[in-house]
Every structure is written in structure tokens, then in C-alpha cells.
């Protein structure tokens, strides 16, 4: 047990030292870009910037890795509007049932919901072993926009 703990601590220190020597690699780890380029992220391939711009209500740039590579974010140049799509294990799905404005979406699947969040809207549902989560903020953000984005994401994931 003592050997395992020492080995684990040693590995953590070695990784930390490696990142400390390479700030670009550290930044990539923190932003999720270290999981591969956005061009290779299957979530980033779901929507073009033009399509994402329609959900946000203003022009957004290309998708960038988000959420440690489990998602993709399309944002405007000032980060005043964005769209995020994230795919995680169903075990991470946590409907905020007590949140003000929460509404269940049982017609979309298991534990589907839509809820307002700071500056925008979030919608999610469990499909099989995955939780599909979307959020949108900006001039076009609304409950209907978030639900439409979730439905389109589900259709494109088939």
C-alpha cells in the first residue's frame, strides 16, 4: 500500500513537472485541446459555424474543443454568444429539477430537460449510454432554441 501511494505521488509529480516546463501543453490540457484538434473532434463536426450562428443569433467562429474534449463550443469573437454541444456518459446526467424555469422533456427521451442558465438556455437528454447536453446564449437564445438545438443534435448523432 505504501509503495502504491509513493508510486502514484511520484507519477503525479512527474506529470506536473513536465507540464510546468511546457506552458503550451499545460494550456492545451486546461482548455481540452490536448485531446486532439477540434477538426478531429466528432462533436465539432456536427455543426458548421454558419449553422451554429443561426442558433446563437450572431456570427460565431469555428468549433473549439470544450469540456476536456467531450464537447465543442462555437463562440462569437467577444464571447457574448455561444453554442456548446457535449457528449458524456449517461451517469453524469444530472437534471436540475429544482432550478427555476426547469421543464422536463419526456418526449425527447430519458430524463430530458430544458432550463434557463446564466445568459442562455441548456437542454439535455439521455440516449443509450450517453448524455447529450447542449447550451446556447446570445440574441437567439431561448427555451425553444435550446430544444431545437437538442433535437437537431440528436438527429445528427443517429
3D structure, described in words:
With 158 residues, the protein is of the alpha+beta class. 32% of the residues lie in helices and 27% in strands. It has a 7-stranded antiparallel sheet with strand order 1-2-3-7-6-5-4, covered by helices on one side. Strand 5 (110-117) and strand 6 (120-127) form a beta hairpin.
Compute the gyration radius: what is it? 18 Å
Terminal-residue CA separation: 46 Å
What is the share of helical residues?
25-40%
Q: Structural class of the helices, strands and pairings? A: alpha+beta
- Name the assembly state: single chain
- In the sheet with the most strands, the strands line up as 1-2-3-7-6-5-4
Mean pLDDT, to the nearest integer, reads: 83
Beta-strand fraction estimate: 25-35%
The outline comes out as globular
Tally of helical runs: 4
Largest sheet: 7 strands, antiparallel
Low-confidence stretches: 1-34
Order of helices and strands: HHHEEEEEEEH
Count of beta strands: 7
Question: What is the topological layout?
Answer:
Layout: H1 2-21, H2 23-31, H3 49-56, E1 64-66, E2 71-75, E3 82-89, E4 103-104, E5 110-117, E6 120-127, E7 130-137, H4 143-156
Antiparallel strand pairs: 1-2, 2-3, 3-7, 4-5, 5-6, 6-7
Amino acid at each position: 500500500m505504501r509503495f502504491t501511494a509513493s508510486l502514484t505521488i511520484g507519477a503525479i509529480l512527474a506529470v506536473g513537472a513536465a507540464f510546468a516546463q511546457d506552458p503550451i501543453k499545460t494550456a492545451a490540457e486546461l482548455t481540452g485541446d490536448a485531446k486532439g484538434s477540434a477538426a478531429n473532434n466528432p462533436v465539432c463536426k456536427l455543426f458548421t459555424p454558419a449553422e451554429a450562428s443561426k442558433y446563437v443569433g450572431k456570427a460565431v467562429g469555428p468549433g473549439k474543443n470544450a469540456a476536456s474534449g467531450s464537447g465543442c463550443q462555437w463562440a462569437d469573437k467577444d464571447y457574448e454568444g455561444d453554442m456548446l454541444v457535449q457528449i458524456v456518459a449517461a451517469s453524469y446526467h444530472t437534471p436540475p429539477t429544482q432550478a427555476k424555469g426547469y421543464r422536463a422533456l419526456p418526449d425527447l427521451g430519458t430524463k430530458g430537460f430544458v432550463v434557463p442558465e446564466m445568459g442562455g438556455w441548456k437542454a439535455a437528454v439521455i440516449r443509450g449510454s450517453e448524455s447529450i447536453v447542449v447550451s446556447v446564449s446570445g440574441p437567439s437564445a431561448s427555451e425553444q432554441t435550446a430544444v431545437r438545438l437538442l433535437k437537431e443534435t440528436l438527429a445528427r448523432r443517429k
